[in-house]
């Protein structure tokens, strides 16, 4: 195989293997190494290697085509599209984020219920500080002070999680 490596590499690249050509060569080597000397008696090594390489290319093509069809079928059955499917979080990510949200909620409540409410109105609802001051009947400096308290509580939580 080593004697025909360059020819096999050109063969694979000519058939569209591209960057995967080296990986396919490795698979060919492993396939031959696994078969052992007693199982394979090859009188014409180069045609045999080309046939093995061609078979692997066909297998890879079929596998990738099946995966694409399976993914498309799943997307159609769930009413999604490719962009949303990739953006969907994993169940593990959802569990981690829920746990983090609970910790943030507790940290905000420790800053005080008013500071937590002001933080939510400003950061989540996107309401300007001046408007929040009018809603709560507080001065702008009090709103800023409560926001700083909420930010400190979240920063403290982040420092604790970084240390853990």
Describe the structure.
The chain is an all-alpha fold. It folds into two domains: 2-84, no CATH class; 91-158, Orthogonal Bundle (Arc Repressor Mutant, subunit A). The chain has eight helices and no strands. The chain has helices at 5-14, 21-39, 45-78, 82-87, 91-111, 113-124, 129-136, 140-163. Helix 1 (5-14) crosses helix 2 (21-39). The protein is elongated. The protein starts with a helix and ends with a helix. The relative contact order is 0.06. The mean pLDDT is 87.
Question: Quick gist of this model?
Answer:
The protein is an all-alpha fold and 164 residues long.
Defining traits:
mainly alpha, Arc Repressor Mutant, subunit A, 2 domains, 8 helices, about 80% helix, about 0% strand
Give the tally of β-strands.
0
What oligomeric assembly is this protein in?
single chain
How many helical elements?
A: 8
Count of domains: 2
State the major sheet.
Answer: none
User: Uncertain segments of ≥5 residues (pLDDT<50)?
Assistant: none
**Distance between the first and last residues' Cα:** 52 Å
Gross geometry: elongated
